[in-house]
Amino acid sequence: MRRGERRVEKNENGFFNMISDAYAQVFHGEDIRTEEDKMIDTIKSAHEDWRNAEAFFQNVTDPDLVDYAIYRVEAAKTRYTYLMRVAREQGIKASMQ
Questions:
Q1: Ordered per-residue pLDDT tens for the chain, 97 residues
Q2: Could you state, in order of their start, the residue ranges of all structural domains in the chain?
Q3: What single string gives the DSSP state of each residue in the chain?
Q4: pTM for this structure?
């Protein structure tokens, strides 16, 4: 087998694996994302929660809700920083945009 033939075979296998993964996800509901992808999605979600908590705090007008708003911001910030630390320890790096 020549080098070019191996490259074609590898590309075909990659294509068939991609189709197989898509089939498993669509028809069987399987989550085929890597653990790294799942962690990145979780971090993005935590960052969005933190931003939403900050926005809520900035807009709260009822004095009875101020303590809740502060708690919500601190909880979201703590969760986000924890997840970032875990990702860093696992060597996960990705753009958070």
A1: 555 455 545 556 666 666 666 666 666 666 667 888 889 999 999 999 999 999 999 999 999 899 999 999 999 999 999 999 999 999 987 755 4
A2: 1-32, 33-97
A3: --HHHHHHHHHHHHHHHHHHHHHHHHHH------HHHHHHHHHHHHHHHHHHHHHHHHH---HHHHHHHHHHHHHHHHHHHHHHHHHHHTT------
A4: 0.64
